[in-house]
Amino acid sequence: PISGDTDSAQRTAAATDTHIYTFFTGSEWSGPGKDHTGHFDFSKTEESFREILKTDPNALFHLRIQLEMSGRSNEYNGPPWWQSTYPDECEITSEGRQVEQSYASTVWREEAKEFLRAYIAHLDRIGIAEKVTAYHVCAGQSTEWTKWSSSGRRACGDYSPPMKRHFRDWLRRTYGDDVDRLRKTWNNVKVTFETAEVPSPEEQLGAKLYSFRDPKTERNVSDYYTCLAELCADLNIDFCRTAKEACGGISMAGTSYGYTLTCSYNQGFYGEGPVTVSSEFSHNQRGGHMGLARV
């Protein structure tokens, strides 16, 4: 672990013969600045690695690369620059708040992969890539693919245009573009692939029996959660594949995903009031971590 105390790190490495350092990166995806017009700035990247290597020449690196667009600001653009640049690509919560990027944003997805390629190429140019043991791709405010803004509290998501499009496309594929089959399964004679909506917060928080959903009356909710889980799983696969290809296979690529039990905390955990049955058991599904089998 890196705390900035290089003397302590040196003593720990010497005492334990452990030379793998892990720390967060990804802040280089900072938007246009005074000295560059692109979205990536690698001007200070080398400095942090060289400081560690000066203390421990045998250092290896496990890099946690944050791809969530929270906290992204710079002096040139101000905060939050990505949300200001791509307002239509951001998640909208049930409270009407625009937060970070939607997981369904293809703009974010493609730019994240572009960043991974550029970052790893830069590490190769400065002679660091061969010292990287693993690229750990992260998203969600927790860096563990959990959006607290729409899955850890009362607010739900994702009501953004990208997610609506993604969910409707997913329904078309899942139901073979057969609207009669969709209506029968959802027990809704009026729904179409053009009008299907992300479930309301009341529906998302209102499981009838713990985390179990009634397939006769709540299929729209379970379909949305399945769609979200598959999307999160596919993003993890896509980002890990991108990192693996960019480094030529010399480093591992992984993620923090599949928290099927540890995501069972509820909004009471955050001190937002008394725990209720309706919200206590919904986080697993709202978090998007149920796609573990797909990974």
Briefly characterize the structure:
By secondary structure, this protein is of the alpha/beta class.
In words, what does this structure look like?
This protein is α/β, with parallel strands linked by helices and 295 residues long. Helix content is 39%, strand content 11%. It is built from 11 helices and 6 strands. It has helices at residues 6-16, 45-55, 81-85, 106-125, 148-151, 161-174, 179-186, 201-205, 219-246, 277-280, 283-286, and strands spanning 20-25, 60-66, 90-92, 98-101, 132-138, 252-255. Strands 1-2-5-6 form a 4-stranded parallel sheet, covered by helices on one side. Strands 3-4 form a two-stranded antiparallel ribbon. Helix 4 (106-125) packs parallel to helix 9 (219-246) and helix 6 crosses helix 9 (219-246). The protein is elongated and about 70 Å long. The two termini are 28 Å apart. Residues 73-78 and 264-281 have low confidence and may be disordered.
Alpha-carbon distance between the termini? 28 Å
CA-based shape: elongated
Gyration radius from CA atoms, angstroms:
21 Å
Structural class call reads alpha/beta
Give the total of beta strands.
6
Helix proportion: 25-40%
- Contiguous runs where pLDDT drops below 50 for at least 5 residues: 73-78, 264-281
Number of helices: 11
Indicate the proportion of strand residues.
5-15%
Query: Secondary-structure element sequence?
Result: HEHEHEEHEHHHHHEHH
The biggest beta sheet is recorded as: 4 strands, parallel
**Taking strands numbered 1, 2, ... along the chain, how are they ordered across the largest sheet?**
1-2-5-6
Mean pLDDT, rounded to whole units?
84
